Amino acid sequence: MTIDNKFIDEFVNVTSRAAIASSYFVGKKDKIAADKAAVDSMRSQLNNMNIKGEIVIGEGELDDAPMLYIGEKLGTNNGPELDIAVDPLEGTNFAANNLPGALSVIAVAEKDNLFKAPETYMEKISTKVEEKNVVDLDYSIKKNIFNLSEYLNKKPENLTACILERPRHNKIINELRDLKVNIKFISDGDVSGALLVTEEKYSVDIFLGIGGGPEGVLAAAALDAFNCGFQGRFLFKTNKDKQRAKEMGISDLTKKYDLNEIIKGDSIFCATGITSGDLVSGIKIEDDKFISETLVTHKHSGLKKVVKLNQNLIR
Question: Across the beta sheet with 257-258, what order do the strands follow?
Fold first, then answer.
């Protein structure tokens, strides 16, 4: 089974409309309002689509998220059954403070083919390398860097690692510096961080560290289309987290997941820029039009490109 090509443009429209809705709040110092605008728009657009959709990664549990909550059914109930993962506004602080890299993101797969990730942290690693036993979460930083260096025929000092700038990563950062690896720090937005390994133009060889589990699944959908490598391992700190994971069907709480265990079969991924970043440019308004850029992938057709839309403003 595959997802019909006709849905590509529709999902690009979903994230584009969410991005423009959120863009009105860029720089307004109100991340809640910016997020709500994206959520409202995305939900409305999805409900107009001829799909039987279910949110598997969303804004949270029903108690905390009245819209786009995990388990919410979306669409007209006519059409294919699809699992939907969303982050209507990735980088809420970016949008609120008019900083680079705010995105509206969606990933879609056939029913039961997209991992239902709990709202917890994930240890993750992504590279352009698909082959096994080159880079692995179970290896030391030194072994991963030396293996990657040999595989890519680059010296460690010519490699670049992308990592969230967080105190929890100080040990990894120090090890990378000892190995003379170049470091690209990001302050937020680890969906886009993980995707910087997809193209040579981003000059990132490896993304690693601890970030959001749901964001890891979203990134995996795009990485799959680019034939990249990804591994993730959830980190459960509280008994509540562990219980929730068990309720979602996760029996081995220490399991390391490869990309093909996170997403299977066909998929569509869309990430539209709200503010300009490494992957795509942000929303631009000219006269009565808005111009958006969306990174879109479709696994079955091999589509991997940035789509520009020029549409009427939403008033």
Answer: 182-186, 160-164, 206-212, 121-127, 229-235, 257-258
3-state SS of 226-271? CCCEEEEEEECCCHHHHHHHHHCCCCCCCCCEEHHHHECCCEEEEE
At residue 267, φ and ψ (nearest 5 deg) are: -155, 160
DSSP state of 181: -
Delimit the domains of the chain by residue range.
Answer: 6-112+266-312, 121-262
The closest alpha carbon to 53, from 70, 37, 73, 31, belongs to 73
Q: Name the pTM for this structure.
A: 0.96
d(CA 3, CA 186): 33
CB 218 within 8 A of CB 239: no
**With left for phi above 0 and alpha for psi between -120 and 50, is residue 112 left, alpha or beta?**
left
Of 215, 245, 221, 223, residue with least CA distance to 135: 223
3-state secondary structure 46-104: HHCCCCEEEEEECCCCCCCCCCCCCCCEECCCCCCEEEEEEEEEECHHHHHCCCCCCEE
d(CA 187, CA 165) in angstroms, rounded, equals 5
Q: Which CATH class is domain 6-112+266-312?
A: alpha beta
For 174-212, write each residue's pLDDT tens digit.
Answer: 999 999 999 999 998 899 999 999 999 999 999 999 999
Class of domain 121-262: alpha beta
Looking at residue 63, its pLDDT comes to: 67
Q: What residues of the chain score a pLDDT lower than 50?
A: none
Angle (CA) 293-297-300 rounded to 5° is: 155
Alpha carbon distance, N-terminus to C-terminus of the chain: 39
